[in-house]
Amino acid sequence: MPGTRWTRWMSRLPHAIAALPWTLASIAVIVLLFLLVKALVAVLGHDRYAEHGAGSRSEAVMVPGVPVATESVLPSPSPTKTRRESGGGPGAAPPPAGRTPTASRSVTPSVSVTPSTASPSPKPTTLLNDDAPGISYRGRWAVSRDRPYGDHRDDVHYTIHDGDSFSFTFTGTGLDYITSRDPEYGDADVWIVDAGGRPVKQQRVSARANRYQPQQTVFSVRDLPVGTYTIWAVKRNGVYFQVDALRVRG
């Protein structure tokens, strides 16, 4: 019996040897197909991310794509906090603009006139109170009126909720954001975008101070080309976020 079994295995050996190349060829084809599929997936995945380029991920804070609506939306005011100190003084006045050049001319070809020197011609400015039409408040804002602390017109808009924001669209060459400083006030992100929604300036500003200081300019943009722009500011931290006034520069 052992001899018969051995003879049977030996008789099958030529068939196994003959089938070996086909078996190896099949394995090679399967491996090649697997590698091709893997390479194709890698190439497609690379192209998909290459379309966007580096830094294409959205951040938690988005610059507005288009100027926001300017319709004022004011919620019902909540009770305001009573302060025991006023302190501080009005913010610094805006610096004077540059001089306007003038040309000299002669009365007659033979007599010259001394060039005249023009006085500084400051750009016109408009100071808007926090309740001015066109300032749009988004979130849960309140109004504090009849304040004896030196605020512009003795009133402010304020919120205590991170993420609340305000916006305002203006036409001119610049704008100042005026608010108060205080130990309980925090930071805000401020953007200026043009009429096409493209960012012109972005800055994180702080309203912290060691005591209450009214009418402080915490953000300013100037000398822009005359056009239409939008300011957009978002509360990030601290207890209070406040709007006292906006100064538009012509």
Automatic annotation (TrEMBL):
Start-end of Low complexity biased regions: 99-126
Region (Disordered): 69-132
Protein name as it appears in the record: Uncharacterized protein
Organism lineage: Bacteria, Bacillati, Actinomycetota, Actinomycetes, Micromonosporales
